[in-house]
Design goal:
Number of domains: 1
Largest sheet: 8 strands, mixed
CATH topology: Fumarylacetoacetate hydrolase, domain 2
CATH architecture: Alpha-Beta Complex
CATH superfamily: Fumarylacetoacetase-like, C-terminal domain
Structural class: alpha+beta
Oligomer: single chain
Number of helices: 6
Number of strands: 18
Radius of gyration: 17 Å
Shape: globular
Order of helices and strands: EEEHEEEEEHEEHHEEHEEHEEEE
Bound molecules: manganese (II) ion
Amino acid sequence: MAYIFEPETTKSVSITGEIAQYPIRRIFCVGRNYVAHAVEMGGEVDREAPWYFTKAPHAATEAGGMIPYAPGTQNLHYEMELVVALGAPIFQGDFTQAAQAVYGYGCGLDMTRRDLQQVGKDNRRPWDLGKDIEDGAILAPFTPATVFGDIKDQRIQLIQNGVIQQDATLADMVWSVPEVISHLSHYYHLGPGDIIMTGTPAGVGPVQPGDTLQGHIDGLAPLAITIGSVE
Ligand code: MN
């Protein structure tokens, strides 16, 4: 295949215990999946069905170093989340098929231009500028589901400059991982390379250049970054 320019290399994430990387195809994100976070955002959880936004695969970046502050915002926020990585195709699947489609899990940050997200909300416009941020889907190494085991009440935490800002358990999620995958699979032919950021607990807040962020979920590789300047 000849291209008029060299295609960009596929973004990928490390896997604990593996040399091979997990290549990213699509990034889906669940909105308002923890009751306390929905409240702090001035909303409420939609009990009818989960809902989503997306980030371009280009937004994916591996944690572990300096992440530039996003351009065009005065209010860049962290959102610590469980990331689900799919490893098998699923289309219009039930909960059992959804659980079987999971490859593994990871810690992730759904970085958000909160000011521009609010402009979108206020004007009933899409959230792209608020959410689809270059280097704004920050991913720690994935852990295979066979190693992690079942999602129960594992603790999920975000620590900013040594201070715990988000502290919840995965049992606090409104929509379970199989529910989300099954529901989403009625709109997309999901498959390997698709990852889902499953929503953030309460306690989101702004970052500044120089901040250190650490994300923890029991049983998963931790996430650590430092916020840099706008580049
Ligand atoms: Mn989020």
